[in-house]
Structure formats: C-alpha cells, structure tokens
Amino acid sequence: MRRRLSHYMPMIAVAPSVALMAIFVYGFMLWTGYMSLSGSTLMPKYNFVGLTQYHKLWTNPIWLTAVDNTLVFSVLFIGLTIVIGLALAILLDQRIRAEGFLRFIYLYPMALSFIVTGTAWKWILNPGLGIEHLVRSWGWEHFRFDWLVDPRFALFTLVGAGVWQASGFVMALFLAGLRGVDEDAVKAARLDGASSPTIYRRIVIPQLGPTFITVTVVLVQQALRTFELVVALTGGGPAHSTTLPAVFMYSQTFARGQMGVGAASAVTLFMTIVAVVIPYQYAINRKRHHDH
Amino acid sequence: MRGGLLITAAAGVVALGAAALWLASARHAAQTAHKREKIEVLHFWTSGGEAAAIHVIMQAVEKQGVTWIDEPATSTDNLNQVLHSRAASGTPPGASHLASAEVGPWARDGYLTDLSDVAAAGHWDGAIAPSIIPEIKIDGRYYAVPVDVHRTNWLWYNKKTFDRLGLTPPRTLEELKGVAEKLRAAGVIPLATGGSPWEEGALFESVVVAVGGPEFYRQAMVEQNEAALHSILMIKAFDEFRNLNKYIDPNYPGRDWNIATQMVVSGQAAMQIIGDYAKAELDLGGAKPNVDYGCVPAPGNAGSFLQTTDIFSMFKTTDEAETKAQKIFAKVVMDKGIQLEFSQKKGSLPARADVEVGALDYCGRKGFEDRAEAEKQGHVLPAISHMEGTAPERAGVFLDVISSFFENPAMTSQQAVDSLVSGLKSVEE
Asked: How many structural domains are present in chain A?
C-alpha cells in the first residue's frame, strides 16, 4: 500500500498545477484562437467568420505601425541588452571586490515593476521636468533632449528604459555562463601569451553559445509582449510612434469593442513567439538526446 | 508515461471541479442566510470629488435597506475589462457604469434589466433632458438610468492672468489667435493640454463646431456622413486644429489632463478647453469660479452643448431580491435631491432638466442654463471623444486620426480626412 502511494505521490503532487495550466493557459489559448475566427465585437460571439478579423487586422494602419515599431524596438532592445549585459558580466568576472554587492545593484531594476520605472523615466525624460530642464537650469540654455515628445525618437526612449531594466538580468545569466567556462583552456591560452581580449573573443565567448540562445529567447518574448512600459512611459504616443502590438491588442479588445480583432492580434503575436521558442525547444531536446 | 499525464490532468480537473462546487454551495448558503437585498455597483469613480459623489448615492441606497457592494475599477478600460469578463462568465454585477453608446448593443443582446416600470412611475420622459433619452430608451424601453452630464466644450481660463494683461476670453477662433499671441508675448503658455487622444479629440470637436456649426458637427462626427467628412469644412477644421499646435507647449505628449489644469491654476498656462470635470481639479487648490478662474463656451461654441453622460445599467439576474434592489437603485439615482448633490460633488450637471440648481456654483448654473437653451434648438450633441453617440470602434477611428494628426506636423488635413474615411470603412465590414 505504502509503496503504491509513494508511486503515485509525484503525480498527485503535480495534478493541481497541471490541471490549472491545462485550463487557464492552454484552454484560454484555444478559446482566443476561436475568438479570432468569430465575429466577436463587444462580447464573445460563438459563430465562424473565417479570416475576416485577420483581414481587418492587417489593413488597420495602427496595427501596421505597431508591427513596424515592434521590429525596430525588438532588434535594438535585444541587441543592446545583450551587448551591455555581456560587457557588465565580463567586467564583473575579473574577481573584483564587492562583486556580490555590485551584482545586486545591477539586478535591482529587474525587481521593480515596469509601471514604476516607466513613470520615473517619464519624469526624467520629459523636457519640461527632467534632464533638459536640469541642464538648462545649469546655464546651457539651448540644450535639447526632447526625444520623449518627438514622434521620430520616442521609440528610442522606450528602448533605453527597457534595456536599463533587462540588462542586469542578462548580466546574471552571462555571469553564470562565464563561471562555467573551462578554466584550463583559459590558463593554457594565457601561458601561450594570448591577451585578455583575445582570450574572451576566441575562447570564452564561443563557449557561451547556449547562454546566448537562452538570453535571446527570453528577450524576444519579453520584447514582443512589452506592454506596461508603453502604458507608463508614453501611452503609445506621440502620434502612435510607440504603440506596440500588446498595447494595440488591449485597446481593441477592451476599449474599442473589437474583441475579434484583438484576438487575431493576440494569435499573431503568439505565433511569432512560438516561431522563436519551438526551434529552441527542439534544439534543447536534441542536445539532451545526444548527451544521454 | 503520456497516459499518466492525462490521468493526472483529469484527476486535477475533477478535484478543481469539486472545490468549485463546494465554494458555490457555500456562497449560496451565505446568500440565503442574509435576507437583506444587495447590489454590486461597478464604477470608476475613485478620485476625491468623484468618490464623494458616488458616496451620496451609496448612502441613499443603503438608507432604503439595500446593501451596497462597492466595486470601483481603476479606469474606463479596466471597467470594461471587468464587465465584459463577468458578463461572459454569467455573473455580471447588479449595476454598472456604461458608455451611453453601449446601452443599445447590451440591451439588444438581452443583458440588461428593463427599467420601464420605474421610468413610468417616476415620469422619466418628462424629467430627463431630451437629448439623453434616445441613448437610454431602446425600442421604447428604458435600459439605463442617467446620473449627470458633463459639458466638454468649455474654455477654462486663469482670470488673474487675463485681468493683468487686459484680455477678454475669446469668443471666436479669430479672437483666440489674437489672445494667444498676446499671452505668448507675455511669456505665458496660451493653451494647456494633456496628451491623451480623448483630450485632443475634445479640442478638435470644439474646433469642428466653431468652423461648421452644430448641424455640421452632427453630420460629420455623429452620423459620419461621407459627404460631410469629405467637405471643405472638415479640411478647414483640421487646418484650424493644426494652428492650435502653435499655442500649446511642446512637452504635452504623455501629460495627464489634470496636470494641464494645474498649469492653468498656477498661471504657467492661461487656458484649457476641456470638460467640467476640470472643476474638481480647479477647486482642489482652493481656486474660486469667476474669481480665480473663468468659464465660457469654447471659442465659436456658444449655443452648442457637447456632452458626455454618466449612466448606470442594471444587468439581468434571476435573483428576485437583486432585481428589486436594482429598481430601488434606479429610483434613488433619479431623485432630484440626489441628482443635485451628486452634481455638486462631481462638478457636473444633473441629468434631469427639472432640478432647481441654485445650489450649484457659477459655472454649474451657467452650464445648466446653456443646456436648456441648446436643448430648445436641438444643439445638445454627444462628444464622441468621450465615447458618446457612436460605437466605440468608430469613435476610436476618430481618436486615432485626430491624435496622429495633432502630434505629427507632417500630416496634412487632406491625409487626415482620407484616413478618417478609410478607417471608418474598415470597421464597417
């Protein structure tokens, strides 16, 4: 009896969470998929209208702007976060004093909500309140830093705030990766007279391949579902220059009474994330099979 | 092992179901234990004056022996999110604030309690301001109760600044230009505004009325007649709207409307065109109407009254006690004294046209008179920037285009009109 119980114990232990996931994650995904094929407007409608909502979506100028924006945002956000995160990790990896304290400082932004940091950034970047105002009050009367309110540059302020928040976390991942690098190879290279930059470029960074993939996957999905940052920092403006797909989805579904279009945009977003995650999962599974 | 996972999931679902059943029965037991009628009220009035206003209704309803379950949302979007998910799951709140344009769709889908008997007993037909009735009376039956209205085409100005510079509030767009130039020369921001699309929308609406008059506004903005949208008047409205770019400060994107109002209070800016909910914000700093600040119709808007209404709809329920509570709620909301006290607290105007409003402040009394006059002419119009008078997805098209145009100086008036027309077509399909 006891043996049987212990046999089933793990299953009993995970049953509630598996069931919750099945309903509240996969169930609702399927439901959203259905909604995107229905004629739902204010409330869900259980009919079938084919791909009408997708047609509406891809002819909506704001959605097209949001897609353009998310491309620019994602490339810059992911690229800069990786570069800065890696640089911070390499600098921290020099066996310096107070590493734990510094690591804590760099990680700290991650612990704050985007709503909080977004609001703080909004004040810092607002020309009438923040940096521009400050520098002007120091006497540089013609100093200009008005990216936040300029439709051509507002997206870059979003990138800046996002990078600031995420790079500490990416640094931690890279730091863990760096600690796993084979010490002997580094020592051998050093004996051969290789300089530090060469060692990093030729030996250490190539060994961080798996970390790069993990970091990229984490950042891609973070970039694609960016929402609170936009809400807190710019509200999607000026002139829709910072509207991202997740913001579009929310406003169509809950403010505009276009649930079908909102669902279609959610499914499109989801498919994009799947396109990134599936190859990653596949690669990991294959690697596992090789290892065993 | 795969079979094991399925069994695991199935077992989990059964366990969850059992837990839900147990909770439901416990709740039912709790409900039958309390005989007192109760009503859940969903709204988004959380700031000082607003919260005080809803408190007036709450107290009166509780005095009638109904327990009030207060459910404030954080914003209109948040309210819609809660309301839609609760209605979809079959447990809507007893009463909810609703955008007036949504009463029709909800009512026709069968979600709303018919209030016609309360309306007949209370003679609503003769009491409510005539412009509101078509919004809440669907196919001859009342499906909502109106609380108050806000006028959106007010011009608020800092009286001390105007007196100091010897200016009078502008009555036309031409006068506005003259006044704005003088203010700018004196180092004051002529026009304060926040960056939300609905605010820019309200500003634009006042310009449309100034350029084309109330009938044109009705055709272009409410009926969305294509000929009116393509007309030269609409182009002219966008041209005049563009001109206002000159009189606002460049840092407004992302600013909240109440911050803009504070700029007028502090004298940093001189004017703001916005609804009378701004009064609560003006009063916060102890500013007095007609002493520290003045209120006049927006330039070119005398005689026209653009409004947004606050209404509640009741959601159908099988629970008779709750239906009874809903009708008590509706009756209380329509009480003359409650309407007056509510409007006093919120800075709005009673939805009833037959209230003695001597107790309202200067701007409130003036607004009430203006509305009575505009009602006679049929010039009370819905402010679509506030999701009135047109479906939310159509109002959304206007707000998208208006804010894009205002915030992007490279966009021409013709481009704005074209994207309005094509945007409206795309939501029609």
From this structure: 1
CATH at A185: 1.10.3720.10
Per the CB < 8 A criterion, the answer to whether B402 and B384 are in contact is no
Q: Residue A42 gets which letter from DSSP?
A: S
- Interface residue B88 vs chain A (CB under 8 A): yes
Is the residue at A182 inside a domain? Answer: yes
Residue A21 falls inside a structural domain: no
Give A208's DSSP letter. G
Residue A127 inside a domain? The answer is yes
Q: How far apart are CA A108 and CA B105, in angstroms?
A: 48
pLDDT band at A5 (very low <50, low <70, confident <90, very high): confident
- Shortest distance between the Cα of B62 and any Cα of chain A, in A, equals 32
Per-residue burial over B14-52, b if 16 or more Cβ lie within 10 Å, else e, is eebeeeeeeeeeeeeeeeeeeeebbbbbbbbbeeebbbb
Residues of A in contact with B415 (CB under 8 A): none
Tell me if B134 sits within 8 A of B160, measured CB to CB: no
Beta bridge mates, A209: none
**CB contacts, 8 Å: A22 with chain B:** 9, 12-13
d(CA B273, CA B240): 15
At position B14, the amino acid (one-letter code) is V
B12/A15 touch (CB, cutoff 8 Å), yes or no? yes
Nearest chain B CA: its distance from A290 CA (Å):
21
Interval B250-277 mean pLDDT? 92
Nearest-by-CA chain B residue for A44: B88
The answer to whether B211 and B300 are in contact (CB under 8 A) is: yes
Which residues of A are less than 8 Å from B253 in CB distance? 148-149, 154, 234, 237-238
CA distance A201 to chain B (A): 43
Q: Is the distance from CB of B98 to CB of B313 less than 8 angstroms?
A: yes
Which of A11, A62, A239 is facing B407, going by the closest CB pair? A239
Please give the model's pTM, rounded to 2 decimal places.
0.84
Closest CA to B124 of B294, B280, B271, B336: B336
Is the four-CA dihedral A124, A129, A135, A140 of positive or negative sign? positive
Structure tokens that stand for A275 in this block: 């396109």
Domain annotation covers residue A244: yes
The pair of structure tokens assigned to B3 is 């079979």
Flag whether the ipTM exceeds 0.85. Answer: no
Supply φ then ψ for residue B208, to 5 degrees: -60, -45
pLDDT tens per residue, range B58-105: 999 999 999 999 999 988 888 988 998 899 888 999 999 999 988 998
Print the domain residue range for A114. 56-291
Q: A84 CB contacts (<8 Å, ≥6 apart)?
A: A163, A167, A170, A171
Structure tokens at A262: 């909102």
Distance of residue A41 Cα from the nearest chain B Cα, in angstroms: 9
Is B426 in contact with A56 (Cβ distance < 8 A)? Answer: yes
Question: Which residues touch B231 (CB under 8 Å, ≥6 apart)?
Answer: B216, B220
Range B241-267 average pLDDT: 92
Convert A198-211 to b/e letters by CB count within 10 Å (16 or more is b). Answer: ebbeebbbeebeeb
Structure tokens at A154: 């507002």
Q: What gap in Å lies between CA B82 and CA B253, rounded to an integer?
A: 28
